[in-house]
Amino acid sequence: MPEGPSIVILKEEANRFLGKTIVRAEGNTTIEKERLVGQRIEALRSWGKHFLLELDDFSLKVHFLLFGSYRINQRKDAPPRLSLGFDTGELNLYACSVRFIEEPLDLVYDWHADVMSEHWDPALARRRLRARPGMLACDALLDQDIFAGVGNIIKNEVLFRIRVHPLSTVGALPAPKLRALVAEARQYSFDFFEWKKAFVLKKHWLAHTKRTCPRCNIPFVKAHLGKTHRRSFFCERCQLKYE
Asked: N- to C-terminal Cα distance for the chain?
């Protein structure tokens, strides 16, 4: 599943279509594609894992789910979910969910929860965490109402960076660890962004999909944890369990 930084990269790459008018819309989506033809791209935005195209009369939300992808001025062998044509090129979206949003985006999205937004509010994230003391750390980082854009890679890497066991409860975390959890969720997202643009992201993984802890030189534990049952990779020696 693409994480927030990947969507910001898409937004940057698609910026070439800003101000352009959609002249063609096709694909196997069931939405009313004809509505898109003639619409001008007024803005390109992202919120967490959502790619948002603001148009003249409404907006288009794209969610890439587990296996979604995109191509700009290229096509895959598979049919696109939605292909948008412009006089200057095309944007092709695959294996994703596309929906119209009729309301202004500022009424729909809480930009303060997006870890990569200029409006990100760490104090708000800490308040929301403290309001859910029984939540597991592995679930907290994947909660899009608190950390919009954080996915499983960032979750595993952040918990390893701050030496917190994924089954720690939020309410048991000492105040410095809670602050570190929030700070590193944003910091690692921007590190992810820079590494992915440079095509070196996987080279920087210390925990995600790894077999051995680079600090302790002992095997990592791999388990599907929390309400989300997403894969966790962690060290039982250097990542302390707070409960």
From this structure: 30
Choosing among 3.20.190.10, 3.30.70.20, 3.20.20.140, 3.40.50.2300, the CATH entry for 4-108 is 3.20.190.10
**223: three-class secondary structure by DSSP:** strand
How many helices (H) and strands (E) the chain has is answered by 6, 10
Neighbouring residues of 133: CB distance < 8 A, sequence distance ≥ 6: 169, 170, 171, 172
Q: How far apart are CA 138 and CA 146, in angstroms?
A: 13
Task: Name the nearest CA neighbour of 228 among 50, 66, 112, 98.
Answer: 66
pTM of full prediction above 0.85: yes
What are 46-72's pLDDT values in tens digits?
Answer: 999 999 999 999 999 999 988 899 999
Show the DSSP H helices in the chain as ranges.
4-13, 105-108, 122-130, 137-140, 152-161, 175-197
- The hierarchical CATH code for the domain 112-234 is 1.10.8.50
